[in-house]
Amino acid sequence: MNATTQRPSHRALRTTMEGQQMKIHIEADRCVASGQCVMLAPAVFDQDDDGIAVLLAQPGPDDIPGVRESIRVCPARALSESPEQS
Ligand code: SF4
String of b and e for 37-67 (b: at least 16 CB within 10 Å)? Predict the structure, then answer.
């Protein structure tokens, strides 16, 4: 095996990035029930009877942009993510 075949190709790197998923965390005691996360990622977030965010499902690849925007705009900083390999 030469040095060229030992390096991952761009295609392999892209596949790794596409296979990466996130795990979302909600700190419910910080949530102020503003509802932005539900509007931005309705497949991932819902609100309970008090308006507190609840997790419906961990985000799939199509949900990640909305979830990242939810994390960015959450007024209570109640949302966070950790990487998770699929
Ligand atoms: S955006 Fe933040 S404060 Fe608003 S409902 Fe979602 S978790 Fe709660």
Answer: bbebbeebbeeeeeebbeeeeebeeebbebb
